[in-house]
Design brief:
This protein has 127 residues and is α+β, with helices and mostly antiparallel strands. The chain has one domain. Helices cover 17% and strands 21% of the residues. The protein has helices spanning 52-62, 72-77, 87-91, and strands spanning 8-10, 17-21, 28-36, 42-46, 96-98, 104-105. A six-stranded antiparallel β-sheet has the order 1-2-3-4-5-6.
């Protein structure tokens, strides 16, 4: 796992909830951690962006008996919300990516986070 340059704290109350420094300003934001990848990128969404109904939906998922055994991404993939929608499909629109060096990206924007100092390589096949 890559070393991170941002501040973070794990919630003492809920699994998959962490306080993350998102703007390199020392202020920590409560976030739901969907998944971490091997290069140190974190897929998350801010819980403050949720209305009360969505906060209750998230709390219900976090209090599931399997919540500590699986990543939140996997828990949501298996959960249907009261409105009939899959939880992952519903919450995925809010997801952002935090890179190991503290940059916040929209994972749907054509950008990805990589390890700092590691050169990307692309294989080119010729006919």
């Amino acid at each position: 796992m890559a070393e991170v340059t941002y501040k973070h704290e794990t919630s003492r109350e809920y699994p998959h909830i962490e306080w993350l420094e998102l703007n390199a300003d020392g202020i920590l934001h409560e976030c739901a951690i969907m998944r971490r990848d091997p290069t140190g990128n974190v897929l998350f969404f801010k819980t403050n962006d949720l209305d009360e109904i969505d906060k209750r939906r998230l709390a219900g998922i976090l209090m599931d008996r399997n919540a500590r055994s699986f990543e939140l991404w996997d828990l949501m993939a298996q959960k249907t919300l009261g409105n009939g929608m899959n939880a992952l499909s519903y919450f995925h629109q809010l997801v952002r990516q935090l890179t190991p060096n503290g940059r916040v990206l929209d994972p749907r924007s054509g950008q990805i986070g990589g390890q700092s100092g590691v050169q990307a390589t692309t294989a080119v096949q010729t006919a």
